[in-house]
Design a protein that fits this description.
The complex is a heterodimer of chains A (about 130) and B (about 280). Chain A has one helix at about 10-35, and strands at about 45-55, 60-70, 75-85, 90-100, 105-110, 120-130. In chain A, about 25% of the residues are buried. Chain A has 2 domains: about 10-40; about 45-130, Lipoprotein YajI-like (Immunoglobulin-like), CATH 2.60.40. In chain A, a hairpin with a 2-residue loop joins strand 3 (about 75-85) and strand 4 (about 90-100). With about 130 residues, chain A is α+β, with helices and mostly antiparallel strands. With about 280 residues, chain B is mainly α. Chain B folds into 2 domains: about 1-130, no CATH class; about 135-279, no CATH class. Chain B has helices at about 5-25, 30-35, 40-60, 70-95, 105-125, 140-160, 165-170, 175-195, 200-205, 210-235, 245-270. In chain B, helix 3 (about 40-60) packs across helix 4, helix 8 (about 175-195) runs parallel beside helix 11 (about 245-270) and helix 10 packs across helix 11 (about 245-270). The two termini of chain B are about 35 Å apart. Classes of the chains: A alpha+beta (about 130), B mainly alpha (about 280). Chains A and B meet through helix 1 of A and helix 1, helix 2, helix 3, helix 4 and helix 5 of B.
Chain lengths: ~130, ~280
């Protein structure tokens, strides 16, 4: 950086900060290129699981997490829940804008009856490529 | 004052500059999304492509010295360090970097904002050093002027390139409308360089007539804006699966803000001080 009044050897701090920058630069490139070139052929793999169920006013909320176990980002992911019990099916849908690689996002579904009583199916139904 | 203390002052200015120039991008949703959704190889290409720009900026902006290449390399790396630290701090402060996100996501988000931040760091260190801009542009070579136009265009285009509006505007307009934008862009650049009385105008104009300066500066400047815009569009994945007609419209739309940066770059960066380069 600037401001030095005399010509001469770079001050120690300049070497330190410059070196730090070089390490950051090389590190970022290494991470990006190794993941980028490691083959993105595998499609997104999204697992949805129940985190907890809580009673709320007027019914129940089921909190879930959707985890993307793949190396690619999925966009506009639709997660659906189907709760069968007492001869009827309650279907709920939630959407996420993005699910980055190896990360999880959380959401919730509202049900009138306790989702722990009955057969519950949670799954990701579709996505877009970002 | 010793060298380290003076250098630390410069770092402070650079940190401020990185934050100031890149803050609109730190607070742009699309930039965060690019952090994890953008093609990794293209993101790496963006960083690699920007590095020589940083070195060139350090060289052409000139820091009152005639040191070697090593010094400009150190400057470029220092700008990256400052921008990465500023980006990480601000993004964490804004909750964009959150615990529980994978390291990949953090690195991607920081990498995307590091590149505008590093340009900002170099510009600010120059602009805020309190030494005042003297006879701007006086000793810069033709190549240096075109280079600065490219950097200015790239920087301003970058501030709007991530947004959806760029493609939306292109969808809304007709090809004739796009042609009008292109003509207005060249006229605007020519006006910024030669009609509006900004420092360095007479020097650039020299003794040449209208057509030589139109071709040598205005059209050349527009060409580097188009190239910068295309590079950004490609890096951000906006060129994928797009027909040639639409791609031209995207480029024209993005080049429009870019010419403002190109036209004012010499003014923002100021003159080089070591007086070596001559056309």
């Amino acid at each position: 950086m600037a401001g030095r009044k005399r010509k001469g050897d770079a001050p120690l701090l300049e070497w330190f900060v410059g070196g730090l920058g070089a390490i950051i630069f090389a590190g970022m490139l290494a991470v990006l290129l190794t993941t980028g070139l490691a083959g993105e052929d595998a499609p997104p793999s999204i697992h949805v699981k129940t985190e907890r169920v809580a009673a709320v006013e007027g019914g129940y909320v089921l909190e879930f997490s959707a985890r993307n176990a793949s190396d690619v980002t999925a966009a506009d992911i639709a997660v659906v829940a189907e709760l069968r019990g007492g001869g009827e099916v309650q279907r709920r849908e939630a959407r996420f804008d993005y699910l980055p690689p190896h990360s999880a996002r959380r959401g919730g579904f509202f049900f009138e009856s306790d989702p722990r009583q009955g057969a519950l199916v949670l799954r990701a139904e579709g996505y877009n490529e970002p | 004052m010793n060298g380290n203390a003076t250098y630390a002052e410069g770092l402070g200015r650079a940190l401020l500059g990185a934050s100031l120039f890149a803050l609109p991008l730190y607070m742009t949703m699309e930039m965060w999304e690019f952090g994890f959704a953008m093609d990794r190889v293209r993101l790496a290409a963006l960083l690699i492509g920007v590095f020589p720009i940083l070195v060139g900026l350090s060289y052409f902006a000139g820091f009152e010295r005639a040191f070697g290449v090593l010094d400009h390399l150190l400057d470029a790396f220092a700008a990256i360090a400052v921008a990465a630290v500023a980006g990480a701090c601000v993004l964490a402060l804004l909750g964009v970097l959150a615990p529980g996100q994978p390291a990949q996501e953090w690195i991607g988000k920081i990498a995307v904002v590091t590149f505008p931040g590093a340009i900002g760091a170099l510009l600010a260190d120059k602009q805020m050093s309190g030494e005042g801009a003297r006879d701007i542009d006086a000793e810069r070579s033709y190549g240096g002027r075109i280079f600065l136009m490219a950097v200015g265009g790239l920087f301003v285009a970058l501030n709007v390139a991530p947004t959806e509006e760029m493609t939306l505007i292109a969808h809304q307009i007709s090809p004739l409308h796009a042609a009008l934008i292109a003509i207005v862009s060249v006229a605007l650049l020519h006006a910024l360089l030669f009609w509006i009385d900004l420092p360095g105008r007479d020097l650039r104009r020299g003794a040449s007539g209208f057509f030589p300066i139109l071709v040598r500066y205005s059209f050349a400047g527009y060409a580097v804006c188009v190239a910068s815009s295309l590079f950004l569009l490609w890096a951000f994945g906006r060129t994928d699966g797009v027909g040639i007609g639409e791609l031209v419209e995207f480029t024209v739309v993005l080049s429009f803000p870019a010419v403002l940066g190109a036209g004012l770059a010499h003014f923002v960066v100021g003159e080089r001080r070591d007086g070596r380069a001559q056309a």
